[in-house]
Amino acid sequence: MEVNDAHNYLAEATAASNIESFMVFGGEPMLYPKRAIATFKEAHKLGIPKIEMITNGVWGRNRGTAEKNRGTAEKLAAKLKMAGLNKVNISVDAFHVRHIPLEYPQNAALALLKVCIENVKWNVAVIESINAENEYDKKTNRILKKLEPLGIDANIFKIEPVGRAVENLRRYFQPTSLYGPCEGEPLTGTMLTNPESICIEPSGTVNVCWSLSIANARQKPLSQIISKYDWRQNPIIKTLVEEGPTGLLKLPEARNYKLQENHYINKCHLCIEIRNALKH
Ligand code: SF4
């Protein structure tokens, strides 16, 4: 996301609403540290109390100890602190460790604690639970045990069957009913009728659930998008609230969509697949 766009969205959002929390996540926000830092500074200037980031901690590979060669991880952590960042979730689990050695997020966490960002947590994805017997959750459990000496708490959340999770982990998910209204976004509890959070993509698309767009903030002021939001005016959202994802099949643009009941794991899986089909 361009910094100017992010600044504009922050100004618009704070004009329209009392923003409690602002979060940057990815991908990996620290691939573009200057942009993220400029955005955190603006959020801080606007008085947003919680300024948060989810990171995979890959930037912890550059931890140095000698004073003359002070580690770039610590320098970066200090800049983040100065910019107003006060809460960091670092992703560590069996899925991340395949690509990022555990030492990196560990070093990133130590650097953040050293510069006195106290609200640092592990962000841990499990399929069933942290004590489950499947190979991934067992590995994640071992990872958390290794990290225990750091004394950092973990936020443990269950993986939703969307995107690549469906392709790669299908055998671990228990299918649930596809029928009935949407019960709200499982990760944040956001309801479609009165969203408590929005997510803005680099393209300006404003979402209230996974790729469920209500407008584009590059085309319309975000303050108006927020203040004028009415779920009844959006045929897809109205259908999801009143009937759920299977109701989308009645929309004229879904007439060629073939429902394959056994293919879907839950309502959200079905919802996302139909909505993707409607876009094309
Ligand atoms: S993906 Fe669809 S069904 Fe699931 S929470 Fe979002 S809007 Fe509701």
Rounded to an integer, what's the Rg over CA atoms? 21 Å
Span between termini:
25 Å
What order do the helices and strands follow? HEHEHEHHEHEHEEEHHH
Percent in strands: 5-15%
Poorly predicted sequence stretches spanning 5 or more consecutive residues: 66-70
**Largest sheet data:** 5 strands, parallel
Helical fraction equals 25-40%
By CATH, the architecture of the domain at 3-159 is named Alpha-Beta Barrel
Structural class assignment = alpha/beta
How many DSSP H or I helices? 10
Describe it for me?
36% of the residues lie in helices and 14% in strands. The strands form 2 sheets. It has a 5-stranded parallel sheet. It has a 3-stranded antiparallel sheet with strand order 6-7-8, with no helix packed on it. A hairpin with a 2-residue loop joins β7 (205-209) and β8. The protein is α/β, with parallel strands linked by helices and 280 residues long. The protein has a domain at 3-159: Aldolase class I (TIM Barrel). 32% of the residues are buried. The protein is flat. The structure holds iron/sulfur cluster. Iron/sulfur cluster (SF4) is lined by residues 182, 184-185, 209-210, 212, 240, 245, 267-268, 271-272.
Which short descriptors sum up this protein?
single chain, 280 residues, alpha/beta, TIM Barrel, 3-stranded antiparallel β-sheet, 14% strand, binds iron/sulfur cluster
